[in-house]
Amino acid sequence: MNYRHPELQDRLAAEYVLGGLRAGARLRFIKLMRDDAGLRRAVAEWEDRLLPLALALPPETPPAHVWRAIAARIAPAATAARTPAPPRGLTWWRALSAGLATAVVVLAFLMLKPPVEPVEVRTVAVLSNDKTPGAMVVNTLPDNRLSVQPMQDLIALADGRALELWSISPGQAPRSLGVVLPGQTTILAPSLLPQQGDTVAITLEPEGGAPNGIPTGPVVLSGKVI
C-alpha cells in the first residue's frame, strides 16, 4: 500500500482524527506520521476542520439527579467531621471490617458482572461540500448496520426535504441506503454496505425518499469511502 498517495493519506487522516482506526492500525498510523510530513499535515487539516464543529456544540447542563448524588456523597463526610471520634482501637477494627466488606463486594461484582464487549465502529466516509467540511460521518456498526451522524444541525440544508443517503459504485446506478434525519444520528440497515471505491452522497428528495429508488434532487454532501 502506497501511504504517500495524497488521497489515501487524506482518508487515513480523517479516520484517525474521528477515532475510527483500530488499535493496531492506529499505532501503525502514528509511526508513519513520525516520518511523513504529509500525513502530519493531513491530520492537522482534519483537526482544523472538525474542531470548530465540536466547539459549536452547546454546553450540557448536568441533570438534577447528578447534583443530588454529589450532595449525598458529600453530606456523610460533613456529618462524620462533626461526630466525636471513637476510641482508637475501635476505629481500627471498624476500618478493617469496612475494608474487608468493600473488597468482598467488589470481588463479587467483578466475578458476576458479564464482560463488556467494546462496540467496534469503523468510519466509512466523511461527507462534505464546499461550504461545510466534515458535515456528516457514516460509520459501520458490528451488526453491519450504518450509523449516520450529522456533525452539525443540517435542518437548514434539508430545507423541508428528505436527506437520502446513496452509495455510488463506479459505472453503476446509485443505490439508496435510506433516509437520514438532519438533526440526530440515524441507524440504517441497507442490504449492501458501501464498498471501497464507492462514493457516498446525500441528495434532497421528496418526503419519504426518492420515488422508485432513483435520485431526483441535487447532491448536497458527498465523500469517498475511506
From TrEMBL:
Domain Anti-sigma K factor RskA C-terminal residue range list: 99-219
Keywords for the protein's UniProt record, in alphabetical order: Membrane, Transmembrane, Transmembrane helix
Record flagged with keyword Metal-binding: no
Superkingdom classification of source: Bacteria
GO CC annotations, alphabetized: plasma membrane
A GO BP annotation: regulation of translation
Molecular function via GO: sigma factor antagonist activity
InterPro entries: Anti-sigma-K/W_factor, RskA_C
Protein name: Anti-sigma K factor RskA C-terminal domain-containing protein
